[in-house]
Structures are given as C-alpha cells and as structure tokens.
Amino acid sequence: MRPAPCARPWTAPWYPRPMTEPRFSFAGIPVRGRLILAPMDGYSSWPFRSLCRDLGSSLSYTEFVRTGDVLERPEFLEDKLVFREEERPVLIQVYGNDPRDMLEAALRLQEREPDAIDINLGCPTSSIAGRGAGVGLMRTPLLTARIFRTLAGRLSVPVTAKIRLGWEDCRKYLLIARIIEENGGQLLAVHARTKEQRHHGPPDLEALAEIKDSLTIPVIGNGGIQTTADIREMLRVSGCDGVMIGRGAVRNPWIFSWLDRDEIPPEQVLDVIREHLGRSQDFYGPKRGLILFRKHAARYLEPYQLPASRRRHLLTRTDPEQFLTLVEETLKQVPDSPFLSSNSPG
C-alpha cells in the first residue's frame, strides 16, 4: 500500500511565510497569494504540485481527467486525484463535452471533497480539441452555457474554468468568458494564446485585459511566464487577480517564492531534487518514483548545460543513491558553487 501522501515535514531557507490576508477570493474561498501552478498532464501530480505549494503556489489544480474515465474506470485515476489537506484550496479539473456525462462525473468527483470543480476549455491537443472538448468546446457557446448552467445548478461546490483565446478563426474569448460567468462560473483562468499557438509565442496581454475588464469574477492570467519580470508585466498590463505558471515552473519551482532561476544556488537545487525525489518515491514507489522523477531532474539541471554523455549517464541511473551521488558531484563542479569551498581541506 502506498504511504499517505504527506511524506515528511519540509522546512527550507526559502520557504515562503504564509500570507495572512487573501489576495483575492472566489465563491467566498480566500486565495492567499497571486501565483498558481498550472494544471499540466504528467506534471502536476501530487509530488510536484505539493512541492510548488510549499514554495508558494496558492491554489492546487489536479491534472485533468476525462469524464469517461471518471465514469467507467475511476480506479485508474487515483494517482491524479490524490491531494493533501494542506494544499487547499484544491480544484479537480475535468474535460468533456456531454452535459449529462460531465454532471455525473462532477458529482462523483465532488465526493472527494475538492474546493471546486474546474472545467477544461483550454487543452489544444488535437485528440481532445478535435472531438469538441478542451479548447474545442470554445467553438460551441450554447453547449458551453448548458454545461456550466447544469453543473452550477447541481453541485454543492463552485464551478470554475480554464480557457484559451479560442482558435485563430474563432477568437470568441469574450463571449465564452461572459457565458461562463453568467451561467455560474466562479473563477476563470485564461491562457492568453490561441489553440494554434499552443505554448509558443508571446501571450496576448491586451486580450487578457479585455477579459478581466468584462467580468466581475476573479481572472487568472496564464501563458509565457518564465521570470518574475514576466509575472509583473502580466499583472501590470492585464490587471488580473493572479498569475498561473506552467512550463516555467517545471524548470524553476522557486518562481512561486518570487525568485528567478539564476538566483538559486546549487545547494538549494540539490535540496529540492532530494525532496522532490523523496516525495515521488513515497507516492509511486522507489523504482517508478525515480523513473517518473527523471524528467523533472532534467529540467532542474538544464541551466548547467551538461555534456550530452554525462546527462544521459545521470538520467539513466536506476539506483536512487547512485543518482543522487551523481547529481551532487555534478553540482559541485558548478562555478562558484558553495560545495567547492565547503568540501575543501581544513
């Protein structure tokens, strides 16, 4: 049996002090910060999500789940739906396009006692969007209205949403945003790119500002955040209530503590690698936990530009202790690393 997902207490020098005053709220739920980890399939599972929460992310979104899987094979979703009490507020994200199935799935997910059910209208993957779910749902305003009206009328927890700007030939972001609010949506996250842009190109901050100005519910901006300067620019131009960070956080989870990657010394990188690997192994088991952690390790070590042979040798280790030893040896060789002086004779 998997250990409870609350592996160990963790204190670190950069651990953010808890905010006592909410920065914004939705449906009466306070959010004590402005930076939020984006839901990412394969990345925002409990080990990484909880790490980012400890570093300052103020909301927890689960990886998205398909309505059909919730209804037909829920046993395969356990890894994606586990959360800990300390993560709250927690939003479970679901995608689909059939109002009846989405309601039934949401009612079942509600039994897990999340703080909200989030509807995905932003996934650009062709296998999802091409079938009318994810960003594909943004092509059908009447269906979108029906889904939100149905869920908001039946659920006892708030309904929220994440959208994009639409498609290049169908940029209905203002219409969809208003439909979501008018039919019971309580919070809106907006990836300020179109379906075709996916994760490339600058986000349209003016469009994000349009959405924020047209709604009364809180709006979270998303897209293209790599540095704290990007965060400040998104907040300045759009006026949004919070900023959601996805791929930039995979490389730099310290961004939730308002730190850029070049501010993080090697010994803190090693601390986070150890902690993240430990959580991954506690959650998935020793072997699978290391295998699933490798993609994160690659991003943590990316700034050091390791030779391909060394990178490959490190990331194919199957023994956790050997892996950590190689990571520490690698970080000791970083110029100006504190490891160099701390391990010198005398």
Q: How would you portray this structure in words?
A:
The protein is α/β, with parallel strands linked by helices and 346 residues long. The chain folds into two domains: 24-261, Alpha-Beta Barrel (TIM Barrel); 265-342. 42% of the residues lie in helices and 13% in strands. The protein has helices at 46-55, 67-72, 78-81, 99-110, 126-129, 141-154, 173-182, 205-214, 228-238, 247-251, 266-284, 286-301, 308-315, 320-332, 338-342, and strands at residues 24-26, 29-31, 35-37, 60-61, 65-66, 90-95, 116-121, 159-163, 185-191, 219-222, 242-245. Strands 3, 4, 5, 6, 7, 8, 9, 10 and 11 form a nine-stranded parallel sheet that branches. Helix 7 (173-182) links the parallel strand 8 (159-163) and strand 9 (185-191). Helix 1 crosses helix 11 (266-284). The protein is globular and about 60 Å long. Mean pLDDT is 90; it is low at 1-11 and 339-346.
